[in-house]
Amino acid sequence: AVIDFNAEAVAATTVGTDESSLPAEFSAQCLVQLQRLLRRVDYVEYMYPTMRALGEAKPLYASDLFQGKLSAITSWTNITVRIELLHKMIQRWTGSRELNLFATDNPAKYSSTTHGITGETPSITVNAEGISDMASPLSPTSASTRSALDAVKKRVQHTPFVERLLKENGMKKIFEQKILTELEHAMMAARRDMIENADMICEMGLPVTNRHMQELLLFPPRLLQTCLHIRLQSAENLVNPPLAQVDQLIEDIRDSLSVACRIKRTFISLVARVGKWNPEIRLDPEYDVALRSCLHTYFRLVHRKLVITKGTGTGAGTRDFEILESQWPFLLEIVRDIDGGHFELVIRYCQQVRRSMRLWTGILAQKLEGPEGYDSVDSRNLGKWISKALQDVRTPILKAQRLVRTIQEALINSTDYSFDDPFPVLAQLVDSKHVLIYTAGEWESHGVYIIGSQSLLEKPHLARELLSACIIDDVMNSERYRNCYLLVIRTDAEFNWTGPSVMPEGEQVPYQNMELGLGQMRLIAPGMGRLDRYRQWLERLNIAAERQPWQTYTAVTDEIVHNFISSRGKRRTA
């Protein structure tokens, strides 16, 4: 029976069933027949003292074909039973058959008493940890107490599930509950076992995935996305919150973003197609929209904290760069999992750093103008005043320089050049064995051409990553990108490339407007150190002139000090 089992016979028994419930009915019928079949196998195994004795008496039992099918049937049955059990538990938890997050129904309606069990049974509820408990009857109480309890019970029952959950737990604790951790482990185990036995399962006509499995895979992202929307709405309704509340909101959103990114990574790994495992579901596009909104709110709260800190009078805002620097590692970590998060981080974070830099460079310039009555102050008192003024701004300026260096190392990955004649440039690049990254007209139609280093000939897909990278992280600094760089050239002259060319596999390289003028070239490299090395190489070739020399924050402060010294000299001569 194990060797001959095929789901086609089960499918014939589901004819006449409503089409909407046909897949679920088919899986249920298969489960019933397979459980019956496994009980028969258990009965036969029980009749022999050992499995070896059974194999000697029945050689077919010991065959690889029989054991392979038996293992696949056992695995499919266990997974299906586990998935169905989890689905019913979450139905009871949410109080909704459709897993509606805003359900207000009584969870006891979806208890296990509907499984063909008759007679009086205690109702099953799900507590805050998602674990089933028996609801014990209330002891006799007074009429006023019963009335108060009924009022509380009615109010709770009419509160949406997701709102009850947020009131009882923080975002981090919600996804640490046993029912959700069990769900994640179950989905990982189901994916692993289905991939291992996919060929045998499909050969028997059994479904690799089902509707309940898809609903359970989508449940954590749906729950988290809804919780994020509620949290963002409550944060946006606040007007001028105090510092303690701002710190609490920042901590809450940090936890929310960390959990959201972890849930997204887990979901992507679970639904990734491997062989015959293909759940055919995708993450809601609004999920990343919610993450970006959350990130934007986070920056608003950080800005609010900086404003409050300046207004407290303690430190007069000298902690600006300390606060901003403490946010950088966390932000750099989470934006990897947010679609468009790198660009949001660069814009918002750099805007905030720029505000603080302008504030302190302005303070430095103002102090270096000298005290009131500058001409009447003697040299000794003037020296004391200057020493004190510089000491006041020394700490924030040094912190600013350190933070700017950190940002430069993470963001600076390109520099621009200009050239008069493209033909010498192309000839030099062909002679140095560079490669044309062909994009099937996506870039070429705009007069923009991508030239890569020789190492990209064997790994052209890295060109797509170099073009889209906005932040240089540990991955970009790894050996994987060693000797990898791009030269993006724009010219209206005829582009005659005689060197090797390659086209990245997979999706096309989408065109990006890099705002290059005619006769301009941009060097793109993974990291500031590597970029400097390739800049020196281009300088030796002398084929193009660098357009925008780097200007660091140190150069800005040096310029302010230089202007002060010059003005002081002019005052003395006057």
SSE layout and pairing:
Blueprint: H1 7-13, H2 22-46, H3 51-57, H4 59-62, H5 64-94, E1 124-126, E2 132-134, H6 143-157, H7 161-168, H8 171-174, H9 178-196, H10 198-203, H11 211-236, H12 243-271, H13 285-311, H14 320-334, H15 341-367, H16 379-411, E3 414-418, H17 422-431, E4 435-437, E5 448-452, H18 461-468, E6 486-490, E7 501-502, E8 520-524, H19 528-541, E9 545-546, H20 553-573
Parallel strand pairs: 4-7
Antiparallel strand pairs: 1-2, 3-8, 3-9, 4-5, 5-6, 6-8
Helix pairs in contact: 1-2, 2-5, 5-9, 5-11, 9-11, 11-12, 11-13, 12-13, 13-15, 14-15, 14-16, 15-16, 15-20
> SSE string, helix = H, strand = E?
HHHHHEEHHHHHHHHHHHEHEEHEEEHEH
Q: What is the general shape?
A: flat
**Strand order in the sheet with the most strands:** 7-4-5-6-8-3-9
The low-pLDDT segments are: 14-21, 108-141, 151-156, 550-557
Report the portion of residues in β strands: 5-15%
Rg over C-alpha atoms, rounded to the nearest angstrom? 34 Å
Largest sheet: 7 strands, mixed
Characterization of the model:
α9 runs antiparallel to α11. The chain is mostly helical. About 10% of the residues have low confidence. It is built from 20 helices and nine strands.
Main attributes?
59% helix; mainly alpha; seven-stranded mixed beta sheet; 574 residues; 9 strands
Can you describe this structure in just a few lines?
With 574 residues, this protein is mainly alpha-helical. Helices cover 59% and strands 6% of the residues.
